[in-house]
Amino acid sequence: MFSEKVYGLCKRIPKGKVSTYFEIAKALNCKAYRAVGNTLNKNPYKEVPCHRVVNNNGNVGGFALGTKKKIEMLRKEGVKIKNNKIENFEEVLF
């Protein structure tokens, strides 16, 4: 099932790192990055760190609990963010 594959890949992203919707879709051998985002928006599992998935350009992107909460969670893990964008994007990309 597509959603379970997305959640499985997302669980592999370590604290302090981020991945993108595009990279997750690519890892699944598809181009359905919007479907990845929709799947993560409906994430029912607390152990799936969907807040670690961001836009391909380094923007934080959306989050079911709101962008402010996503930024707060990423910052607690050491990810630097300025103006809703990951500052050291290439360094923290997983």
Protein model, in words:
The structure is a single chain. With 94 residues, this protein is mainly alpha-helical. It is built from 5 helices and 4 strands. The chain has helices at residues 2-11, 21-27, 33-41, 67-76, 89-92, and strands at residues 19-20, 53-54, 81-82, 85-86. The strands form 2 sheets. It has a two-stranded parallel sheet with strand order 1-2. Strands 3-4 form a two-stranded antiparallel ribbon. Strand 3 (81-82) and strand 4 (85-86) form a beta hairpin. Helix 2 packs across helix 3. The longest helix is centred in the first third of the chain and has 10 residues, at 2-11. The protein is globular, with a radius of gyration of 12 Å. The model has no long low-confidence stretch (mean pLDDT 96).
Number of beta-strand segments: 4
Name the average pLDDT: 96
Output the radius of gyration: 12 Å
Which strand order spans the largest sheet, edge to edge or round the barrel? Answer: 1-2
Element pattern in H and E: HEHHEHEEH
Main beta-sheet strand count, sense and barrel state: 2 strands, parallel
**Classification by helices and strands:** mainly alpha
Unreliable residue stretches = none
Shape, per Cα inertia axes: globular
Helix content: 40-55%
Number of helices, where a helix is a run of at least 4 consecutive DSSP H or I residues: 5
Q: Give the terminus-to-terminus CA distance.
A: 23 Å
- Our estimate of the beta-strand percent is 5-15%
Oligomer: single chain
